[in-house]
From TrEMBL:
Superkingdom of the organism of origin: Bacteria
NCBIfam families for this protein: conserved hypothetical phage tail region protein (TIGR02241)
Residues forming coiled coils: none
Signal peptide location: none
Regions that span the bilayer: none
Record GO terms (molecular function): structural molecule activity
Name under which the protein is recorded: Phage tail protein
Pfam families hit by this protein: Phage_T4_gp19
Length: 144
């Protein structure tokens, strides 16, 4: 008898940045890459063009989390805003977990730095959690 294989759920994940695990994220996205297509026309071939792979581009990783007293990610972004020559690039992972908390998939990103920080939208009429977000530019993404 065949074993049933359910798809993974998308709400149980954590983020690791330089070995520090952070599990309280609301959302993580930008797990994609694109290979540019270079069209090349060869002499004597008037009907079609050849398609060759070009440069690989990675989308920025986007992270959203409920605002708290933890300001580590914001301070990392401020280092880049302030032009700190010691501002580090960091490696990290987004890890998808199953319902039992076991790792099912991992995406590793490399040489990341925070390119955009967004503070919470505040409203006296709302009853929502204050959400911060950060975009990370990076130089590579691999599903491990």
């Amino acid at each position: 008898m065949a074993t049933r294989k359910d798809p993974f759920v998308n709400f149980n994940f954590l983020v690791e940045i330089d070995g520090i695990t952070r599990a309280a994220f609301h959302e993580a996205g930008g797990l994609d890459s694109t290979v540019d297509v270079i069209e090349h026309r060869e002499g004597g071939e008037n009907i079609t063009t050849r398609k060759l792979p070009g440069q690989v581009k990675f989308s920025s990783i986007s992270l959203k989390w409920g605002m708290s007293d933890d300001t580590d990610l914001y301070r990392w972004h401020r280092q880049w805003v302030d032009g700190d020559p010691a501002a580090p690039r960091k490696n990290g992972s987004i890890v998808l977990l199953d319902r039992q908390g076991q790792e099912k998939a991992r995406w590793n990103f490399f040489n990341a730095w925070p390119s955009k920080w967004t503070g919470p939208s505040l409203s006296a009429e709302a009853n929502d959690i204050a959400i911060e977000s950060l975009e990370l530019a990076h130089e590579g993404l691999v599903r491990a």
